[in-house]
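Quick start: what a row looks like.
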Amino acid sequence: MISLFPSAQFRLGIRCVISSGPRLSQRFLTIRSSSNCSSTKSAMAATDSNAVLPPVAKKVKHELEMFGDVRVDNYYWLRDDSRSNPEMLSYLQQENAYTDFIMSGTKQLEDEIYAELRGRIKEDDISAPLRKGPYYYYERTLEGKEYVQHCRRLVQNGGPPSVHDIMATGPEAPPEHVILDENVKAKEHAYYSIGAFKVSPNHKLVAYAEDTKGDEIYTIHVMDAETCAPVGEPLVGVTGYLEWAGDEALLYVTMDEILRPYKVWFHKLGTNQSTDSCLYHEKDDMFSLDLEASESKKYLFVGSESKTTRSIFYLDISKPENGLMVLTPRSEGVDTSVSHRGNHFFIKRRSDEAFNSELLACPLNDVNATTMLLSHRESVKIQDIRLFSDHLVVYEREKDLPRVTVYSLPAVGEPLQSLQGGQTVDFIDPVYSVEPEESEFSSSILRFCYSSLRTPSSTYDYDMNTGVSVLKKIETVLGGFDSSNYVTKREWAIAQDGTHVPISIVYRKDLVKLDGSDPLLLYGYGSYEICVDPYFKASRLSLLDRGFTYAIAHIRGGGEMGRKWYENGKYLHKKNTFTDFIDCAEYLIKKKYCTKEKLCINGRSAGGLLIGAVVNMRPDLFKAAVAGVPFVDVVTTMLDPTIPLTTAEWEEWGDPRKEDFYHYMKSYSPVDNVKAQNYPAILVTAGLNDPRVLYSEPAKFVAKLREMKTDENFLLFKCEMGAGHFSKSGRFEKLQEDAFTYTFILKILNMVPAPRG
């Protein structure tokens, strides 16, 4: 499962009597030409790659009974929550060794692709500086370094912010100050990730949350922003939710034993964590907590959220002694998010009636006296809002395309009325992605990030008074990249029930012939109402420049086409996600983008569930499949409330303790539907420390596939032994994963060039 922390930051990856079968033995054994050799699969290998057989996990019969139905899970033993069972670790290591052995013959190509991916990156670079108070804040990357530096400079000329502002960098400019260098911190760890980096309101202190294992359990450090000296003792065993409550206190969130964010704490700087006061304890294990600050920085909002319901508490930072106050009480099926400006709270509310959300406002002193600002529309989904001192920005979706609309607001203290005459920001590509970025509340400058399948990530500052947009930063893509060489388009597949399913497509126009002979990689996700927008990723160019078409199937279960699109791909409609994907694949074949022999598919996490389900349903349709950290043991996981995320996920997948859900979920759960049939070539990945999808899920899927499948196609399993759900943490390390995946796909398609001498 993916949704460990259900805030906006994370809403954008999920989870995860002894028989006589063969046991694991040494890493490789030589297969000898002898009539006494066993013909069954075993953990053997030889120097001749044609004679290599993969590891085979032992079988330990484990029966699981529900509603009179008995499931036999011979690989249940692979789950070890301590991650210390020597036999389990040996099996994972043997799988990794087998994968390395099989892929060793294409190491030259993998190194070549990695060099391409890294060669496109401007390694020494900075992000678009953001003006906040007296400073510009930005991140810097250094040549050869995996991680970023968090930096700032004083604003040289103090006038009001403008979209035309440029941070001075010359010898006469204020010097750059490195607040935190992640490269220095990461030296001590195999994995390193910053989950939050928050500057205090007076800009004197910084609080940041770090994860050094990939298990998403963080430690919060506070430091002096100028001297970098630590302030107080670290706060341990926390989530990535962290906000300043004034200049001398923090709010943070901790998790229970199943990694559910369930308590919010108030910490006074200089005091011990053991004396922190708990402001709220969420006791319902279907609900998790999140935390965010208002754009005005005057209020902190604590959300208590299930998959269908969300209520909000608020803390007045000027009166922390009052504690948390209820803003929107819990009401089944009603989901609220809140912002603040002047003497009003602004509330985005979704309900059964207003399923695509509506926008309201209420006075601070009377949360029940609401005014409708934007009413519900069946064809337009309100996705997010951003508030400024004089403007309101609404991020919406219509027909699978994002839209940004800016509204002017009356002066603070004047009555609010229904919003009219908004100004819409124009975009040029037929399919694209737009994401809000941090902006200054007191300014009239909206910052957003725009990209498309052919347009690199571009940071814009938009003057909400004049409508002028200024490009502040575009991702540099080295190596001769020219966006005009690529075509992006939108296609619509027709699903089995007549639903039109959007597909986003990109290819290189001078290489792709559209006669069925071209290779194609089809990506899908389709869960959690997440919108997989067509964004730019430079590493994809290594496929596009080899003649691939890349496509995204915007299948039901995601949120691209509104709330109903999501609801028609969850619970007892989940199979729509899988059949939509199959229908998209068949549409692309029909339109001669590819053939079955050139069609490869990819998905991660809940998208890995998608890949596992469709290769069971239609293994004949695909040449190669890549399932990253896949949530594939659906029934067993969702029956076990001790597994992280299970209880909160019953409202996403269904509760298999109820008979109708049990049988329906069993009918598509990939592990439960592996059968004796031919499968495409498959690559499966996992992370040993993954808290969202337990490593044992993909491990069991691979073990059962090895036992059951009747083909000789490659089945490879790669488990990162020191990482979690998001794989390795360094920026170049992540490129190695892409290079490996692309090499696997090219190997299966027989597109590996002859080795150079």
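That is the whole record. The chain is about 15% helix and 30% strand. Residues 86-103 form the longest helix (18 residues).
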